[in-house]
Design brief:
- This protein has a domain of about 190 residues: Metalloproteases ("zincins"), catalytic domain (Zincin-like), CATH 3.30.2010.
- About 65% of the residues lie in helices and about 5% in strands.
- The protein has a 4-stranded mixed sheet with strand order 1-2-4-3, sandwiched between helices.
- A hairpin with a 5-residue loop joins strand 3 and strand 4.
- Helix 4 packs across helix 6, helix 6 crosses helix 9 and helix 6 crosses helix 10.
- The radius of gyration is 24 Å and the shape is elongated.
Length: about 375
């Protein structure tokens, strides 16, 4: 059984002293299921709103019956698309992410020390060793992906591999192995898919409205809705306004939810890394080097940026860089992460040796 999470500063930790990492993993799975259910429902609501918006604006929903049919059609279509997209993401998302990131799988003979560190951390975490990938870029970064510990991979940049010491490398990889162990990788893939669907549906519906408006469709819609039944016309206007508001705020709301969850899970993965290595200074040193690096990871994009240990995008390096605290950031400030790492373990734990697997490997290449 893993030890309880200790700290001298409950305000930073925010967890009872008897909570173990197994408890956090179970809580992570429950929260993930609820969040994915909520995001799935939001996809359905957006699908309904998009269908209603287009139907009302184009004059296809002349009465309440036609409007109800449009709503049902939108809900069913959105649910089917969400299930299909989620299934694809579950089984093929990790391969797509690795391909988009330019990551190439490497064998043990290519980097024996890197393989040793990954295997030792996997043993300490009680999961199968993930596949190892290398991104040929001088920027400092790393990420993990996969649907579960049995189908997972870790990827690091060449710059990170070359510039970190062994203890710092172990800290970063322990962070990524913790994401796998906590099933964050599955959640991140599915959440990104749901957010993408919401953004796509909203943008598509609004774009159709713009096209229809510029071709004079709005005037035809107005004549149809202002005929014999003023009550139906008022209903159409109300539905139109509600649907329009949903189309505008849904993408932003989905992004804020995803980013807030991502920040929380970064803290938890940092804590998991400390548990695996028993050496918080390793991850602290790595985060300090990552924070001082101002090199943009060229292969990263907005769809994959939340997966990395620090935000790799150019926008994240402007101004205060990784120290900025914002609801629109996928990662918490580095100084806050480092402060929590200092506070996670009680003083006796800080002086304990590394895990047996890590200590045994000190003489390995």
């Amino acid at each position: 059984m893993p030890e309880a999470i200790h700290t001298e500063n409950p305000a930073i930790r925010g967890l009872p002293p008897n909570v173990t990492f197994h408890d956090l993993i179970r809580r992570n799975k429950r929260r993930s299921a609820l969040l994915m259910l909520g995001m799935g429902l939001l996809v359905v609501v957006v699908g309904m709103a998009a269908t209603a918006l287009v139907a009302v604006y184009a004059g296809f929903a002349g009465d309440g019956v036609n409007l109800a049919q449009s709503l049902v059609l939108g809900a069913v279509a959105a649910a089917i698309v969400a299930v299909l997209a989620g299934t694809w993401s579950f089984y093929g998302g990790s391969k797509a992410i690795l391909a988009l990131s330019g990551a190439k799988e490497i064998a043990r003979k290519d980097d024996p020390q890197l393989y040793n560190v990954v295997e030792e951390l996997a043993i300490a975490a009680g999961i199968p060793p993930p596949k190892v990938y290398l991104i040929d870029d001088t920027a400092l970064n790393a990420f993990a992906t996969g649907r579960d510990p049995q189908h997972a991979a870790v990827a690091i940049t060449r710059g990170l591999r070359e510039r970190l010491s062994r203890d710092e490398l172990a800290g970063v990889l322990a962070h990524e192995v913790s994401h796998i162990r906590f099933y964050d990788v599955r959640f991140a893939m599915l959440m990104a898919t749901m957010v993408g669907l919401i953004v796509f549906a909203s943008d598509a519906a609004l774009q159709m409205m713009r096209i229809h408006f510029w071709h004079g469709g709005g005037r035809r819609s107005s004549r149809r809705s202002s005929g014999d039944n003023k009550g139906a016309a008022i209903l159409m206007i109300v539905v139109f306004v509600i649907a329009l508001i949903l189309m505008i705020i849904a993408p932003t709301l989905a992004m804020i939810i995803r980013m807030a969850v991502s920040r929380e899970r970064e803290y938890l993965a940092d804590a998991g890394a400390v548990e695996l290595t028993r050496y918080p200074q390793g991850l602290i040193g790595a985060l300090e080097k990552l924070g001082s690096c101002r090199e943009v990871l060229e292969v990263a994009n907005r769809a994959t940026s939340h997966l990395y240990i620090v935000n790799p995008m150019k926008s994240a390096l402007k101004g205060q860089g990784h120290e900025l605290n914002s609801a629109f950031r996928t990662h918490p400030p580095l100084h806050d992460r480092i402060a929590r790492l200092h506070a996670l373990m009680a003083p006796p734990a800080a002086s304990e040796p590394r895990s047996p697997a890590m200590e045994k490997s000190r003489g390995r290449p």
